[in-house]
Amino acid sequence: MRPAFAIVGACALFVFFALAASAGKARADAWQPLRDDPVIHEGLTAFSVGRMIHLRCPDISGRMLRTMGFLESLVDRAETLGFTRAEIRAYIDNDADQRRYREITEAYFAARGADIDDPAGVCRVGRDEIAAGSAIGRLLRGG
Question: Which pick of 23, 24, 51, 108 has the fewest CB atoms within 10 Å?
Fold first, then answer.
């Protein structure tokens, strides 16, 4: 089941990351509206945490169609803020923002008493999210 998830996950990332042949370089400060938008920030956080759970917990998998729809809704939101798909791709590909979301994800687990290198703790957080029906939990199944 994992290989199928990886393929669909890669497709979901492709949909979100741009779909533009030539991604123009946007200036980092031009992305501040994306960073400041609560819908985009919370959505990318939910995706990042959910992906970490999927990658680190063998008992939990992702709901791929739901995840792809969720990511497309974030792209739509970014477009309503005036960003093109090429600009969205540049934002997502930005190393600084990737590091920032990695830190946010690690802090999310730490706040729940889990380390991302401990599969049992990651699985516990995943089961809690699924049971709570949170935005993260709705992207996952199993547990």
Answer: 24
Lookup: tokens for 5 = 């998830």
C-alpha 63, offset from chain centre = 13
Element (DSSP H or E) covering residue 32: helix 32-36
Of residues 7, 1, 2, 137, the one with CA closest to residue 66: 137
Burial label for 53, CB within 10 Å (0-12, 13-18, 19+), is: buried
Block means of pLDDT (10 residues each) for the chain, length 143 residues?
Answer: 51 43 50 93 95 95 94 95 92 90 96 95 96 96 82
Buried b vs exposed e over 4-30: b needs ≥16 C-beta within 10 Å? Answer: ebeebbeebbebbbbeeeebeebeeee
Global confidence as pTM:
0.78
Q: What is the DSSP string of 41-86?
A: HHHHHHHHHHHHHHHH-TTEEE-HHHHHHHHHHHHHHHHHTT--HH
Q: Assign 138 to helix, strand or coil.
A: helix
Q: Give the chain's end-to-end CA distance (angstroms, integer).
A: 14
CA distance linking residue 128 with residue 121, whole number of Å: 11
